[in-house]
Design goal:
The structure holds two protein chains of two kinds. By secondary structure, chain A is an alpha/beta fold. Chain A has two domains: 161 residues, 3-Layer(aba) Sandwich (Rossmann fold); 111 residues, Nitrogenase molybdenum iron protein domain (Rossmann fold). Helices cover 43% and strands 12% of the residues of chain A. In chain A, helix 2 crosses helix 5. By secondary structure, chain B is mostly helical. In chain B, 82% of the residues lie in helices and 0% in strands. The longest helix of chain B has 32 residues. Chain B is built from twelve helices and no strands. The chains are: A alpha/beta, B mainly alpha.
Chain lengths: 305, 273
């Protein structure tokens, strides 16, 4: 039986190769941890890059099921773009498994998209485990601030230029083109949410602070007190009471959150539940970075009306 | 592309064979003791131990964290060996169920106090066979070889107690002590393998080959050979299907076990009138 193994594996592999076909050689091969970073890399790389995201939009990043083809892509990748701030530490186990040391910390093929981004909620002073859930490096959901894309795309272009210096000018001009489209869109979004400046909303998971701050809204509380763990009943009761007192009208839920609990809280407090895309592709019709904001801004404006 | 696939998959494949080697054997014990979920309970206890380590300030995947997990597993082995009753007032399976539920809930409560605690509990229980690399195969192979030797040396006691505890008691064997050694060694194995391959895959390697062995019947040697043959065969098929159809590897192997078991069962029915 064991002697037969190489033969069978070999023929299956041959099948796999014939099915996947040969990739275009000249393209820069990029793997990103999240769909947001994939979309941004596509925007600056265009037809010069081939981008794959490890996590899909509608999935909790912790449930990433890796297929062999993705591992092969990681193995062959020239560049890895990660979110950083401890959001995607899981990616490194895959990189090590794919045996591509260029993509490990310190490697030339690694881009930490968060570098230079103004980070919110960085704990002041000493961080201690007894404080409960604290991100020692701050809140990692910065891609939900459209303004952060200016720095993020600069980081991506720097990485792309390291591995394909001959395309430096093209990458940069595409970035500028994308940023001007983003600026135009952002003016539109700001206008759509302008009437709601100062409005307080409640969120399910603490991933919306960048988005809310950008558009002048305020976060009054979170349903989860610690990520991934059902909240204690006292916390939920206090939140509902607070929402009633402050007449908070909207509860924002990311698409993979616990819908039943959020529905219950919103129902008891007399607020509307609105499901927003926490990442590109999380909700139907959010296939690019700009589409995601279009969707989120419209859905939120409608709920607040 | 082909070269990439081969160099990506050979270490995981070897790991599958290593898993087959020890788990098919341990599965025989687990089946005759009727404690099929003991691996999941012990893995959960190890995760609880690692959570405690994390709260005390030791990161997951460090040596200290590993030993916390190990210590918790050995404590679990103690509970399992002490709760065995000679006359079977209480099924061992009930104790295992209770241990599993309590260990899981305790980990949730502890994780509640730690940043990203829930994720760390998960990372103890979710392995990914595709990320296995050559040094790990050697490391795990070494540990399993040690445990295998222990079981070879103590084979009389272990086999007798698993197959016929009543006789073992009557002959004056110190059954609870041997049970402790058995569950502790078993705990070391599953703690290691669950981190590598995940609960589902480990459970399948433990139960299905041994089940196929007992379908065929015969002596222990025959059943072991059938189990090893089936485990190796399914590893090849599962790995090949995962590569060829681009499916998640662990889940593909588990389903390949299912299909093979059905075919084997049908064949056994057809042969025996």
């Amino acid at each position: 039986m064991r002697r037969l193994a190489p033969v069978i594996v070999g023929s299956a592999l041959a099948l796999a190769v014939s099915m996947s076909g040969g990739a275009a050689e000249a393209k820069v091969r990029v793997v990103t941890s999240t769909p947001d970073l994939k979309s941004l890399t596509d925007s600056v790389g265009g037809d010069l890059v081939e981008v794959e995201a490890l996590a899909r939009g509608n999935q909790n990043v912790h449930d990433v099921e890796v297929r062999p083809s993705l591992m092969v892509k990681l193995r062959r990748a020239d560049l890895l773009v990660i979110n950083g701030l401890e959001l995607d530490g899981w990616a490194d186990a895959l990189v090590r498994g794919a045996n591509n040391p260029r993509l490990l910390p310190g490697g030339a093929g690694r881009v930490d998209a968060s570098s230079g981004v103004p980070v919110l909620e960085v704990p002041a002073g000493r961080v201690d485990r007894s404080m409960g859930d604290v991100h020692p490096q701050g809140n990692p959901h910065y891609t939900l601030d459209p303004e952060a894309a200016v720095v993020v795309t600069a980081n991506i272009v720097a990485g792309l230029t390291r591995v394909a210096p001959e395309h430096r000018v093209t990458f940069e001009s595409r970035r500028q083109e994308f940023l001007s489209r983003l600026a135009a869109a952002q003016a539109r979004w700001t206008k759509a949410l302008d009437a709601f400046r100062g409005t307080r909303v409640v969120v399910n998971h603490n991933s919306w602070i960048y988005f809310l701050s950008r558009f002048g809204l305020e976060q009054a509380g979170t349903v989860e007190d610690r990520p991934g763990i059902p909240p204690a009943p006292g916390h939920v009761a206090r939140l509902i009471q607070q929402m009633r007192q402050e007449r908070i009208r909207v509860l924002i839920l990311e698409s993979w959150g616990d819908r039943r609990l959020a529905e219950r809280v919103a129902g008891e407090a007399g607020a509307r539940l609105v499901v927003l895309a926490h990442t590109v592709g999380a909700v139907k019709g959010t296939d690019s970075y700009l589409d995601m904001f279009d969707y989120n801004v419209n859905a939120l404006a409608q709920a607040l009306r | 592309m082909l070269g990439d696939m081969v160099s990506l998959l050979w270490a995981p494949f070897l790991m599958c064979l290593v898993l087959t080697g020890l788990h098919a054997y341990l599965g025989v014990h687990v089946l005759s003791r009727e404690v099929v979920f003991v691996d999941i309970a012990l893995a959960q206890i190890a995760a609880l131990g690692a959570t405690v380590a994390f709260l005390a300030g030791y990161e997951a995947d460090t040596v200290v964290s590993y030993f916390f997990g190990l210590a918790a597993t050995i404590l679990g082995a103690l509970v399992l060996s002490l709760t065995r009753s000679r006359r079977r007032h209480v099924s061992q399976e009930a104790v295992i169920g209770a241990v599993y539920a309590i260990a899981t809930a305790a980990a949730v409560l502890l994780a509640d106090r730690a940043p990203h605690g829930a994720e760390h509990v998960r990372s103890m229980l979710v392995g990914n066979i595709l990320t296995v690399r050559a040094p790990q195969v050697l490391e795990v192979g070494g540990i399993y070889l040690g445990i295998g030797l222990l079981h070879w040396v103590c084979r009389r006691a272990f086999l007798l107690i698993s197959a016929d505890p009543e006789t073992a008691f009557a002959q004056g064997w110190r059954v609870r002590l041997w049970d402790f050694v058995f569950y502790a060694s078993f705990g070391v194995v599953v703690t290691t393998s669950v981190r590598i391959a995940g609960v589902l895959l480990v459970f399948s390697y433990l139960i299905v080959p041994a089940l196929a062995g007992s379908l065929v019947g015969g002596t222990l040697a025959t059943r072991l050979l059938v189990g090893w043959g089936l485990g190796a065969f399914v590893s090849v098929i599962g790995m090949a299907a995962s590569a060829g159809l681009d499916l998640p590897t662990g889940a593909t192997i588990v389903c390949a076990f299912g299909v093979t078991l059905v075919v084997l069962w049908a064949a056994a029915r057809a042969l025996k009138p």
